[in-house]
Amino acid sequence: MIEADGPARFSNNSHRPLGRTVARRAMLEARGHAVRSIPFYEWAALGSVDQQKTYLWRLLASTLRREDAAALQRGAALVGQLSG
User: Fold this and answer.
1) Which residues contact 49 (CB under 8 A, 6 or more apart)?
2) Per-residue pLDDT tens digits for 8-51
3) Please, which residues have CB within 8 angstroms of residue 11's CB and are 6 or more apart in sequence?
4) With contact defined as beta carbons under 8 Å apart, do 38 and 3 qualify?
5) Which residues make Cβ contacts (< 8 Å) with residue 36, sequence separation at least 6?
6) In degrees, to the nearest 5, what angle opens at C-alpha 59 toward C-alphas 57 and 62?
7) Which residues contact 18 (CB under 8 A, 6 or more apart)?
8) What residues does each domain of the chain span?
9) How far apart (Å, rounded) are the C-alpha atoms in residues 77 and 82?
């Protein structure tokens, strides 16, 4: 899951996410979602469309690897339960 986090999700004059933002991410992760954020300040610092594309591809790749690893762990646990 990828979230675009605007300024309203951060404390004023800082890059610290608000409590409700942290709580939402924790809830989603507890439900098995790999959560990635695109903070407004990182996106604004990207100078070109090519840099934005690279940023998004890297973010997607990190999400897929994490979800694949979680799926493998769930599968291994299931196999262990079935054979035990």
Assistant:
1) none
2) 999 998 899 999 999 999 999 999 888 889 999 999 999 999 99
3) 17, 18
4) yes
5) 1, 2, 3, 59, 62, 63
6) 105
7) 9, 10, 11
8) 2-83
9) 9
